[in-house]
Specification:
The complex is a heterodimer of chains A (320) and B (126). Chain A has 14 helices and 5 strands. With 320 residues, chain A is an alpha/beta fold. Chain B has one domain: Transcription Regulator spoIIAA. A 5-stranded mixed beta sheet of chain B has the order 1-2-3-4-5, with helices on both faces. The chains are: A alpha/beta (320), B alpha/beta (126).
Chain lengths: 320, 126
């Protein structure tokens, strides 16, 4: 409790210019202003008493401001209640841990529904506004007391807004990181389709980092599988610019240094036109229209001959 | 240390054992040039498996070896370029040009077999 009070005390001082010069005090030895704690207690009981009314006011303001449009009214009210109770808990205990956990949980639920950072910050700031207004109303008679109440309230409120905002952004960043990781892992399969024949289907946009990873993975695949022919299929690549073409040329050259022939397949007519227009020299590359053609060509290079069973029995019969 | 050059049938195999100085590279070039003539070899294999760095001088010398050998009637294959080396070479723009490459010694020998055999067909594998 001591620590929490000290934290609250520090924040109070940081917020208040008049008290700022004495903020060294809080570092050396905490002087817990009983008055602040008492005020917060009063504040909390005030907010508890007017819970229903303030919460409704808040939910109304959220709808009015056209925030959280992705959620229904009932959902907004439910979340509003939870946030409100957490809010009071933070004011009461000074500990934001429960709120942090709640903010994470909330973010996890609402991010997939397309709720924006702007909206989350907006609703928290609205609540802050709603509560401050009610405080103004209650203490308007005594300006000095109102001042002290705000001294106690504002830092805590700022801290709450901060916690919720940061929690939301962190959750969002975590999801982005997770997705990037997933894409990275999915994006470079090097598959062996026959002895000494690899295929590398590329799907999605190629950026420099991915291109590098592709090449490295392919070269390692060539060594591991002792590949002689590699078919790179770029049907799934939406656009090819000079950079991507350059990477392709590099990959082909590097594979050749490892003794493997590369066949590039799946160049759409648009991509072929772009490449001709921007003047990329792909003459050194073997290209075949589609993946099937590429694999057939690779089989020819490797000396495979694929015969249909019926046909070959016919041939045997004919030979007899 | 001189790079050992082994004679294997119609072919010469230069198996590099450690990182080479520029001087040793030139020595390798001269040794190969001399021995291609002496043994009337049909093919030369340079095994660079142990090299984890390939600078422009090394690449140029390998190219020179290939050109010299070709003028003396012999095909050259570079074998065992590591993935990292291949990637670095491409990034630095060090091209081996027309020189043949293969994954390892075995592949290199197979390739030479194919190249030196007149009318050799790849279908023979199947």
């Amino acid at each position: 409790m001591d620590g929490k009070k000290r934290e609250r005390e520090t924040r109070t001082k940081n917020q208040d210019p008049e008290k700022r010069e004495s903020s060294y005090e809080s570092l050396t030895g905490p002087v817990i202003p009983e008055s602040t704690a008492a005020l917060l207690r009063e504040l909390v009981s005030h907010l508890r008493e007017n819970r229903t009314q303030l919460r409704e006011e808040w939910a109304r303001r959220i709808t009015e401001s056209q925030l959280l449009l992705a959620m229904t009214k009932e959902e907004i009210f439910k979340e509003a209640t939870a946030v409100y109770d957490n809010y009071i808990a933070v004011l009461e205990t000074g500990s934001v841990e429960a709120l942090e956990a709640y903010a994470r949980d909330l973010s996890e639920r609402i991010i997939p529904r397309g709720v924006e950072t702007r909206e989350v910050l907006g609703i928290v700031l609205l609540l802050r506004d709603v509560l401050a207004r009610s405080l103004f109303k209650k203490y308007q008679a005594d300006f000095a007391l109102l001042n002290r109440v705000l001294d106690a309230y504002e830092p805590a409120a700022n801290r709450i807004a901060n916690t919720v905002g940061v929690g939301f952004v962190q959750e969002r960043e975590r999801i982005i990181r997770q997705q990037q990781e997933a894409i990275r892992e999915l994006s470079t399969p090097v598959l062996q389709v026959r002895e000494r024949l690899l295929i590398l289907p590329i799907i999605g946009v190629i950026d420099p980092q991915r291109a590098r990873q592709l090449t490295e993975q392919l070269l390692r695949g060539i060594r591991a599988n002792r590949a002689k022919v590699v078919v790179i299929d770029i049907t799934g690549v939406p656009a090819v610019d000079s950079m991507v073409a350059n990477h392709l040329v590099q990959t082909v050259d590097a594979s050749r240094l490892m003794g493997a022939t590369v066949i590039v397949t799946g160049l759409s007519s648009e991509i072929a036109q772009t490449l001709v227009t921007i003047g990329v020299d792909l003459t050194k590359m073997k290209t075949v229209g589609d993946l099937q053609g590429g694999i057939e060509e690779a089989e020819r290079l490797l000396g495979y001959k694929v015969n249909m069973v019926t046909q070959s029995t016919d041939q045997i019969a004919a030979a007899k | 240390m001189r790079v050992p050059i082994l004679k294997q049938g119609n072919y010469l195999i230069a198996s590099i054992q450690s990182a080479l100085s520029d001087y040793e590279l030139l020595q390798l070039r001269d040794d190969l040039a001399a021995q291609v003539g002496r043994f009337r070899s049909k093919g030369v294999i340079v095994d660079v498996t142990v090299l984890d760095i390939m600078d422009s001088f090394a690449v140029r010398t390998l190219r020179a070896i290939a050109q010299i050998a070709r003028m003396r009637g012999s095909e050259t294959v570079i074998v065992g370029i590591q993935p990292e080396v291949a990637f670095a070479m491409v990034q630095l723009g060090l091209a081996l040009g027309e020189v043949e490459t293969a994954l390892d010694l075995e592949e290199g020998l197979a390739l030479l077999e194919l190249r030196t055999k007149q009318g050799g067909s790849r279908d023979s594998q199947s």
